[in-house]
Automatic annotation (TrEMBL):
This is [F-actin]-monooxygenase MICAL1-3-like Rossman domain-containing protein. The chain crosses the membrane at residues 398-420, 576-604, 616-636, 648-668, 674-700. It is found in: Cytoplasm. Pfam families: Rossman_Mical. It comes from Albula glossodonta. One of its GO terms (cellular component) is cytoplasm.
Length: 813
């Protein structure tokens, strides 16, 4: 029979259901003893994982013992294998099994254990569990042992392996002057011991995770002869389509056992493995031990790793052909130059490799790189193992021009001076010794200590010292004081000193990608296109609603003490972005002492003491503390969007967008374009001030703080471009090209491309079309068509509703 190397036990969990006639199990029950002795010798001398599993399966078939019967397997194997070589091994294992902690193999008889990984640790753990009396199943992804590295064994490790019969299974174990063994040979020894103790080993099986137990499941086992159909043993109510898995295990030449698992699943913990049809996927266990390295750390556990200082070494494995010359080569545990200078001098003479030589030339180039240690161990079976350890300085490879620095634990490319990690593919600067996660694919510049994140796609010059905030994806330049938001691509000039620091009072919000200028105290929200002027403490939303709302992110200037102010004890509600007071009120502003309701999403202006309700579009004057009440003040129906002013303010038609004209306080309804003048607080006056109709865009003259009049000021409004014309300045507008000429301010806007002269220290953002001018403290957002002028403390917001030329008479408003 051609045995499957992934199945250790032919009658065990998931063995072949149809034994071949060539299997020793099909032979006569009383074969000569020499056959079993030959199989045992083949099993002991097997030098590959596949051969060990195959010979063990054939030995069990020949002796007619069931490895799945883990409680009695070892006892029956000893009884049926009457061989003097085997008895010497049984003596070793019996002596170990008598240890008091094992309780004669009854300490863990009720435990079913799954061990992941057939390395030395996984196999040794499985052996210990078998001594304790547990049922053990071991899974290994590989189907071969190929790790030839030689290990130096500690004395207590040698004592432990000798107690498990390592010398009986591998006669050359620790026979030389040095106590060492290759990892592959150590795995073979432990694998043989584990199989003899009844451990099920499955190779070629990939572990993907744990499957939690289900509540209800049933199953059945039964015996049947080879002439019977296995399905005949199923209960009558069970149909074949309902059976998830069906396995047949050979017990004897004429009797087999059936095990089936219904579609309802298992009642215990199981492993998610590949291939999914592998029998080990049905094994139910209550103990899981991961010995597969850091990639298989169970949930809830933390992996700790003890790492010493960097050790640089070259490992070479040479085939041991057992020639006379190779036999005469002595094994050495370590040769240091300080103790054997003659050896290294001869090495320099013959090969050119020594302590001397140019430091830039490495050992691989034959340039004589420095060494501190050389070790050579001979593998008895296949290979000799040579370890060359360089001094913790540098080691250069001529092929890849790679520099390894022991001080910074980095691998540096000579061409780009970047670190290349084989596992994480990270890049690290030689001077800054910084480490970046491979998942973000980040690069660090050595000269500027700059951090560039691939997610935010931000790039800065090498001369400036740059840092990136991981949460807000913000780039800051220390020399030029430049702040860049990756999402909105907004740039602020160097004169405005935009930094994340207490001196400039700059606030950056990662969610809304906000920039604040320290000079003008202007705030921009990339998502809602909202502007906040710190001088006038006025907040206007691009959607013509107030800023504090659930959809638009709330952003307040640092000096208004509205958001999270220590004096007002305000909090922020994450769901609606509404300011909530800790005491009992929703929001308290220290400047205006105005109460705001969270349900209506209101706004406070500190200078004009104005409160705006977003739902009803109502204006309340804070000086007279006017309220919307039918008893003492004018009340307007909720359907019409109107504004109420205290004292002598005029109410204008409710259905059309309402306007209020007063001596000092003016506001335009939120549905129309909102305009607020802070200096004179005058807007609507037929004699001296002109208001442009709602359809056109509202503009303000910076010097006289009035609306542009047809007699002394010229206004041209293009499709979507709004500009300011001062007393002595000229404004020219073509359909989509706008020019403003000032003494030192020149602005040219061509569709979406904006240019600002160097004297005005303005910046340009291609994505959000945001302009910030430092000298005039003006801020323009192309999407929301909003302008803030710090000198006149004016906010203007326009919407694209058509072009208008000149000024309109009051009757046209």
């Amino acid at each position: 029979m051609e045995m499957n190397s992934s199945l250790v036990h032919p009658w065990g969990f998931g063995a072949s259901a149809d034994p071949s006639p060539t299997c020793p199990m099909a032979m006569a029950p009383h074969d000569p003893p020499s056959a079993s002795h030959a199989l045992f010798d083949s099993f002991v001398h097997a030098q590959s994982c596949k051969d060990v599993l195959q010979y063990f399966s054939q030995l069990c078939c020949h002796l007619e013992v069931d490895p799945r019967d883990y409680k009695c397997f070892y006892v029956k194997l000893k009884e049926r294998l009457n061989y003097w070589k085997a008895k010497a091994l049984w003596a070793k294992l019996d002596k170990r099994a008598t240890h008091i902690d094992y309780q004669q193999g009854k300490a863990c008889t009720n435990n079913k254990c799954l061990v992941l990984g057939a390395g030395p640790c996984g196999l040794r753990t499985a052996i210990e569990l078998a001594f304790l009396g547990a049922q053990v199943v071991l899974l290994e992804k590989r189907d071969a042992f190929s790790r030839n590295n030689v290990l130096h064994l500690w004395p207590f490790t040698i004592h432990d392996l000798r107690g498990l019969g390592a010398k009986k299974l591998y006669g050359k174990f620790c026979s030389g002057s040095l106590d060492h063994i290759s990892i592959r040979q150590l795995q073979l020894i432990l694998l043989k011991v584990a199989l003899l103790l009844g451990v099920e080993v499955h190779t070629g099986v990939e572990y993907r995770g744990l499957l939690e137990p289900q509540r209800h499941a049933t199953g059945v086992t039964g015996l049947f002869t080879c002439s019977q159909c296995p399905c005949s043993l199923l209960p009558p109510q069970i149909k074949m389509p309902c059976v998830t898995s069906l396995f047949v295990f050979a017990l004897h030449s004429h009797v087999c056992r059936l095990f089936w698992l219904p579609a309802s699943g298992a009642v215990g913990w199981r492993a998610d493995v590949l291939p999914q049809s592998h029998p080990s996927s049905c094994f139910q266990f209550d103990v899981f031990i991961s010995a597969g390295g850091g990639r298989f750390v169970p949930e809830g556990f933390r992996r700790k790793e003890l790492r010493g200082k960097l050790a640089i070494g070259i490992t070479a494995n040479f085939i041991n052909r057992h020639t006379a010359a190779e036999t005469q080569v002595p094994e050495i545990s370590g040769v240091a130059r300080i103790y054997n200078q003659k050896f290294f001098q001869n090495l320099l003479t013959e090969t050119g490799v020594s302590r001397g030589g140019t430091e830039g030339e490495g050992w691989m180039k034959g340039g004589g790189e420095r060494k501190s240690r050389l070790a050579e161990w001979r593998g008895h079976s296949a290979a000799s193992y040579v370890l060359i350890s360089a001094e913790s300085h540098v080691l250069i490879s001529a092929a890849s021009y790679v520099l390894i620095s022991a001080a910074s634990y980095v691998l540096i490319s000579a061409a780009s001076y970047a670190l290349i990690s084989a596992e994480s593919y990270a890049l690290i600067s030689a001077e800054s010794y910084a480490l970046i996660s491979a998942e973000s694919y980040a690069l660090i510049s050595a000269e500027s200590y700059a951090l560039i994140s691939a997610e935010s796609h931000v790039l800065i010059s090498v001369a400036s010292h740059v840092l990136i905030s991981a949460e807000s994806y913000v780039l800051i330049s220390a020399e030029s004081y430049v702040l860049i938001s990756a999402a909105s691509y907004v740039l602020i000039s160097a004169e405005s000193y935009v930094l994340i620091s207490a001196e400039s009072h700059v606030l950056i919000s990662a969610a809304s990608y906000v920039l604040i200028s320290a000079e003008s105290y202007a705030l921009i929200s990339a998502e809602s296109h909202v502007l906040i002027s710190a001088e006038s403490y006025v907040l206007i939303s691009a959607e013509s609603y107030v800023l504090i709302s659930a959809e638009s992110h709330v952003l307040i200037s640092a000096e208004s003490y509205v958001l999270i102010s220590a004096e007002s004890y305000a909090l922020i509600s994450a769901a609606s972005y509404v300011l909530i007071s800790v005491a009992s009120y929703v929001l308290i502003s220290v400047a205006s002492y105005v109460l705001i309701s969270a349900a209506s999403y209101v706004l406070i202006s500190a200078e004009s003491h104005v409160l705006i309700s977003a739902e009803s579009y109502v204006l309340i004057s804070a000086e007279s503390y006017a309220l919307i009440s039918a008893a003492s003040y004018v009340l307007i129906s909720a359907e019409s969007h109107v504004l109420i002013s205290a004292e002598s303010y005029v109410l204008i038609s409710a259905e059309s967008y309402a306007l209020i004209s007063a001596a000092s306080y003016v506001l335009i309804s939120a549905e129309s374009d909102v305009l607020i003048s802070v200096a004179s607080y005058a807007l609507i006056s037929a004699e001296s001030y002109v208001l442009i109709s709602v359809a056109s865009y509202v503009l303000i003259s910076a010097e006289s703080y009035v609306l542009i009049r047809a007699e002394s000021y010229a206004l041209i409004s293009a499709e979507s471009y709004v500009l300011i014309s001062a007393a002595s300045y000229a404004l020219i507008s073509a359909e989509s090209y706008v020019l403003i000429s000032a003494e030192s301010y020149v602005l040219i806007s061509a569709e979406s491309h904006v240019l600002i002269s160097a004297e005005s220290y303005a910046l340009i953002s291609a994505e959000s079309h945001v302009l910030i001018s430092v000298e005039s403290y003006a801020l323009i957002s192309a999407d929301s068509y909003v302008l803030i002028s710090a000198e006149s403390y004016v906010l203007i917001r326009g919407r694209s509703r058509g072009a208008a030329t000149g000024a309109l008479a009051p009757s046209e408003i």
